[in-house]
Amino acid sequence: MLIRVQNEQRHWRVLHPQKPESISFHEGSAAFDFADALARELHTRTGQTCSVRVEVSDTFVDTVSYG
Predict the structure, then answer these.
(1) Do 32 and 61 meet the contact criterion of CB atoms below 8 Å apart?
(2) How many separate domains does the chain show?
(3) Judging by beta carbons within 10 Å of its beta carbon (0-12, 13-18, 19+), is residue 57 exposed, middle or buried?
(4) Pairing between strand 2-8 and 50-56?
(5) pLDDT exceeds 90 at position 35
(6) What is the C-alpha separation between 43 and 67, in angstroms, rounded?
(7) Domain of 41?
(8) I want to staple 31 with a disulfide (CB 3.0 to 4.6 A). Which of 9, 12, 60, 63 is the partner?
């Protein structure tokens, strides 16, 4: 599973593939910490591989992966 942290027009949001709506944040660090906690919790609970990707404009970095 891939959880995405996106920056759009100075706003950050976390997109979870199993949730219909994104979660908004004012700071990128808060958005990343939230996404990281989601990924870690999901992996702990299910054993499923889970990663976090940070996306800004047309670039991205896969930052962490559990499992």
Answers:
(1) no
(2) 1
(3) exposed
(4) parallel
(5) yes
(6) 7
(7) 1-64
(8) 12
Distances (CA, A) of 61 to 2, 20, 35, 46, 64: 12, 23, 14, 24, 9
Q: Examine the pLDDT at 64 and tell me if it is beyond 90.
A: yes
pTM of the model: 0.92
Sheet with 2-8: list strands edge to edge.
Answer: 23-25, 11-15, 2-8, 50-56, 59-66
Return the ∠ at Cα 12 (arms to 7 and 18), rounded to 5°. 100
CA distance 22 to 11: 12
What pLDDT, on a 0 to 100 scale, did the predictor assign at position 9? 84
Q: Whole-angstrom Cα distance, residue 59 to residue 37?
A: 23
Residues ≥6 apart with Cβ < 8 Å to 10: none
